[in-house]
């Protein structure tokens, strides 16, 4: 099973503030939905709670929530106490590509622990003030394999680039 990250990252690597996203980009939300549709997704407890209640668990996807709280309840989702437990669950379920959907703490650990082979990274071409950041990627280890620029428009007010990066060593 492949383990992938999907994330949207500002020019200054910002990804969130006050447990919320920093921008409204319907094109990126649509991309996220298309890429993750039908798959297992793994999220940290804080990111899960940042999704409005009526939209969670995210439909058409098996939602895995990671928390150290043994009594945590997330109706309709699967709760585990460690990232590796969530990954093993998806693998046992026959998943081919599991998506790590954040937030910052979970992304960082997955990269540091070398759990991820692919990153679907939407570069949002603007700087943002933030309290949560995506880790700096070492270019010696990550190669861009796809790149698709999307110019800002009426509904998406910031230029962005949809990138795919693969771990090369
Ligand atoms: N731009 C993007 O694409 C994007 C995507 C996702 C999220 N975000 C943003 O990221 C922010 C949230 O990220 P965050 O770093 O604050 O939180 P997070 O990574 O979503 O969740 C952190 C929580 O996950 C649990 N956790 C983390 N590591 C664990 C481990 N090894 N074992 C067990 N449980 C573990 C803990 O839950 P407990 O405290 O319950 O134990 C911890 O408090 C928000 O602002 C959100 O909007 C942005």
Describe this protein's structure:
It is a single chain. This protein has 169 residues and is of the alpha/beta class. It has a single domain (15-162), classed as Dihydrofolate Reductase, subunit A (3-Layer(aba) Sandwich). It is built from four helices and ten strands. The chain has helices spanning 26-36, 45-50, 83-92, 104-112; strands at 2-10, 14-16, 40-44, 62-66, 78-80, 97-100, 118-124, 132-133, 142-150, 160-167. The strands form two sheets. Strands 5-4-3-6-1-7-10-9 form an eight-stranded mixed β-sheet, with helices on both faces. α2 links the parallel β3 and β4 (62-66). The radius of gyration is 15 Å and the shape is globular. The mean pLDDT is 97. Residues 7-8, 15-17, 19-21, 44-47, 50, 66-69, 81-83, 101-106, 109, 132 line the site of NADP nicotinamide-adenine-dinucleotide phosphate.
Name the helix and strand elements from N-terminus to C-terminus, one letter apiece. Answer: EEHEHEEHEHEEEE
Strand residue percentage:
25-35%
Rg calc: 15 Å
- Biggest sheet, spatial arrangement of strands: 5-4-3-6-1-7-10-9
Shape: globular
State the domain count.
1
CATH topology: Dihydrofolate Reductase, subunit A
Q: What name goes with the CATH superfamily?
A: Dihydrofolate Reductase, subunit A
Ends apart, CA distance between termini:
18 Å
Sheet with the most strands, sense and barrel status: 8 strands, mixed
Number of E-type strands = 10
What is the top-level CATH class? Answer: Alpha Beta
Which small compounds were modeled alongside the protein? NADP nicotinamide-adenine-dinucleotide phosphate
* Helix content estimate: 10-25%
**CATH-derived architecture:** 3-Layer(aba) Sandwich
**Could you name the ranges where pLDDT drops below 50 across 5 or more consecutive residues?**
none
Summed over residues and divided by their number, the pLDDT gives a mean of 97
Count the DSSP helices: 4
Query: What structural class do helix, strand and pairing data support?
Result: alpha/beta
């Amino acid at each position: 099973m492949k383990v992938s990250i999907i994330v949207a990252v500002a020019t200054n690597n910002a990804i969130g503030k006050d447990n919320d996203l920093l921008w409204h980009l319907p094109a990126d939300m649509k991309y996220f939905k298309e890429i993750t549709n039908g798959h297992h997704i793994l999220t940290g407890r804080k990111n899960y709670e940042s999704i409005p209640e009526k939209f969670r668990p995210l439909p058409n996807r098996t939602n895995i929530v990671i928390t150290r709280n043994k009594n945590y309840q997330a109706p309709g989702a699967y709760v585990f106490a460690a990232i590796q437990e969530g990954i093993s669950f998806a693998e046992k379920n026959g998943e081919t590509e599991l998506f790590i959907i954040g937030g910052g703490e979970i992304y960082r650990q997955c990269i540091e622990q070398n759990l991820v082979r692919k990153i679907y990274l939407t570069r949002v071409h603007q700087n943002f003030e933030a309290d949560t950041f995506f880790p700096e990627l070492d270019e010696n280890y990550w190669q861009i394999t796809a790149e698709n620029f999307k110019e800002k428009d009426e509904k998406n007010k910031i230029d962005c680039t949809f990138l795919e990066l693969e771990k090369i060593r």
